[in-house]
Amino acid sequence: MPQMTMVKSLNLAMAEAMREDSNVLVLGQDVGQDEGVFRVTEGLLHEFGADRCIDTPLAEAAIIGAAIGLGFTGYLPIAELQFDGFSFQAFHQIENHARRFRNRTRSRYNCPLVIRMPYGGGIRAIEHHSEAPEATYGHLVGLKVVIPSGPRNARALLRESIYDPDPVIFFEPKALYRAFREDVPEEPETMPIGKGVIARPGKDVTIISYGAMLRMTLEAAEELEDEHNIDAEVLDLLSIAPLDNELIQESVRKTGRVVVVHEAPKHCGFGGEIIARIVEDSLLFLEAPIKRVTGYDTIIPYFSNELTYLPDTDRVVQATLETVEF
Q1: From 46, 129, 139, 267, the catalytic residue
Q2: Segment 209-230, tens digit of pLDDT
Q3: CATH for 197-324?
């Protein structure tokens, strides 16, 4: 099994799908000649040509609008936006059109479309390049919202997204693009959208996370076990729409204690939705108040202050200790 970074595994998923189906194509700013700002589309122009790896103008609304039209005419478009902070220039196409067509046509027409966006902080980027707007898109009924946490599940989930009949927002945690390598099978592999996984089994407390926060959460879980004899179960959601509510409730009912971790601000962050579902379905199983470890309620700061904004192992360990010792 070859080892790959997330960049390489995402590239593999697109190349595989483009070889299998001539209707799969990629479009976006600089995806062809420059091979993407993070080189995720490396080699696609050379192998598949300019008709299937399409450089577009710097015009997010046009990129998504064109991709919607391509989906209606039999193509399976993969649209890349260079950073999720610029997705709001195309928000009307996503909100007013892409997510509504199945309902608008009473399921006579679907809108197959993957919108790939580098997502989140951790690379010391400038403004509009480090946002984490997953809750905004998770609120839009009709979209699927996927957030992988490693090379293997990124490849599997992107393949699944390409062939999904509905529009998928595919957030790629840019801090993980080249952070580590992982075994990725040579044969094609998919994962169902809407199913999370137990990244680390445990019995004392449930820590729920996704995306770039997962690795840090797993490190915190190891520290909790080594230094405090606390056996934490870590859940990796992998998608927030659909949300694997069954996985969450099963773990919460087993441990009775919960910590939720994400890098977006706390106010109206997706952690609030997770907690609401736990309260609705498993309140009487809780042994302590639920803790949230999140970004702060401010715009993510620049450069030297970025790491003080993002959750870290110390904050997760402290929140977990407070929950367990309640």
Answers
A1: 129
A2: 999 999 999 999 999 999 999 9
A3: 3.40.50.920
